[in-house]
Design a protein that fits this description.
The protein contains one helix and four strands, in the order ββββα. With about 90 residues, it is an alpha+beta fold. Strands 1-2-3-4 form a four-stranded antiparallel sheet, with no helix packed on it.
């Protein structure tokens, strides 16, 4: 059995903040979690701590989330908010 949480992807949104997409489990519920993490300093050691900004969804809703993101990407391209090819260009 895989140990959770598993970080699927992370990317910076500022010098001290990042977004993480993780797979996790809470009690007996399997979750997909999209959340901001911020730098936190404990003495001389800097670590990242999750913030309240984000969402945890049942893994059963993952297909709906993917479909919504694909639709959002297409609409953003249509509206000229993104270049052709999506966020990664």
């Amino acid at each position: 059995m895989t140990r959770l949480p598993v970080i699927v992807e992370s990317f910076p949104i500022g010098s001290r903040t990042e977004v993480r997409l993780t797979l996790d489990r809470y009690v007996k519920a399997d979750l997909v979690d999209l959340r901001t993490w911020a730098a936190s300093k404990a003495g001389e050691v800097e670590t990242r701590c999750s913030t309240k900004n984000g969402v945890s969804l049942s893994i059963a809703l993952l297909a709906h989330l993917i479909a919504a993101l694909v639709k959002t990407d297409a609409l953003a391209q249509f509206l000229g908010l993104l270049e052709k090819g999506g966020a990664e260009g």
